[in-house]
Every structure is written in C-alpha cells, then in structure tokens.
Hints:
The protein is an alpha+beta fold and 244 residues long. The protein has one domain. Helix content is 14%, strand content 34%. The protein has 3 helices and 15 strands. The strands form 4 sheets. Strands 4, 5, 9, 10, 14 and 15 form a 6-stranded mixed beta sheet that branches. Strands 1, 6, 11, 12 and 13 form a 5-stranded mixed beta sheet that branches.
Amino acid sequence: xxxxxxxxxxxxxxxxxxxxxxxxxxxxxxxxxxxxxxxxxxxxxxxxxxxxxxxxxxxxxxxxxxxxxxxxxxxxxxxxxxxxxxxxxxxxxxxxxxxxxxxxxxxxxxxxxxxxxxxxxxxxxxxxxxxxxxxxxxxxxxxxxxxxxxxxxxxxxxxxxxxxxxxxxxxxxxxxxxxxxxxxxxxxxxxxxxxxxxxxxxxxxxxxxxxxxxxxxxxxxxxxxxxxxxxxxxxxxxxxxxxx
Length: 244
C-alpha cells in the first residue's frame, strides 16, 4: 500500500499506532489467524550489570528467526505489516537523559531517532529462491509518523523489559515513527521476508520470516483453477515484486 493511502479506513499512521500497542502487549508472540499479520524485529536488550541504570546491550548479530519449522501460515486475503525501523516514545518518558514533557518534545525525540538510522532494508524471496527483491522501490519514501495516540503498557508485557528503553506499566500519550510497508493481499505462494535497520549508535534489529500463503478451499470448493500453482501463476507472483 503506497504512503498516503488508507486501508480498511485507516491510514499508515493509524496502523502504526495499532502495531505499537500490539508490540508492547502480553500476546506479541501469538497469531490467531486474523486478517492482519504483524511482523517484528529482534528485541533482546539486557543490562550489562546489576547496577541501577546500567547500560543495556543487545548483540547486533542476533535476529528474530521465523524460518523453516518456525514459519507462519496464513490464508489468502491476510494482510502483512512489515516494520523495517521503529521508534516509539511517550510523554513522561526519558529521551537521552531528559524527560519528555509535551508533544513538541516528543515528536522531536522520535524524529531525532529516525534521522540517525544508518541503513534500512525490506526484501522478499519467492518460493525459496536465492534472489532477493525489494518490497518497494524506495523504502525511504515509506517513512511514517503517527498522530498522538494512547499506548497501553500492561504489567505482563512480553517485550518491554527487553527494549533499549523499558517502559513502566501504564497508559501513555505516545508517538511512533519509522519505516513501514503494508502488504494488503499476497498471492498464494511461499515468501521469505527479511527486514531491519542499523543505527543510531550500535542499535540494530532484524526479522526474517517464512510465510506460506494458502487459499481457503472451504470458501470456493468447486473452483480451484485460478489458484493452480503452475508456471504462469508463479510468474505472476514474481512480477508483483519485480520493481527493478
């Protein structure tokens, strides 16, 4: 979906706000077959010592591996939300040792973080091919910033304590920004989506997902011709991502 367009009545900024609440939720590892699949990069920051306020470190070689036996299976018609780079912050939280007190400071903090990114990528391989294809021709044009939204951090959030700046439980006025791609409807096939970013500083994150897209044969049991996995079908799937 191109920037500036809406999907199901929601803008990219709206979807990023929804994704941000999902990321900080207690059920981030689950997928129950709904019609939107959220992806995420690796999160694994830990304090280097037991001292209060100790520096936190994440091995830049680590990545979220959802390939092979860990692949995801979705039905045709399921949309996929890809976060190549994300920054989320909130009023009342810290940024570079300073308390964020208002929306102006909040947006400045989010954009300063995004501006320091050294590299971003989002690619796809089809049917176990060795050829990587860009998800979009220019990922930098998919820079998104949300409206001010309510971010709910539950006490049993799965990931907040593994983030570079852990957030306390509560409800916050937040802003999120970064580079995101929404794929509204993947054709039946097998995809490997690789995405992530490097910077600022030593920060890095990466996610690699194998996603198998199937037809729901229960809906159209008597007409499988348009979903045949023949050579012409494979070519059409490949052409959808061949942007040069």
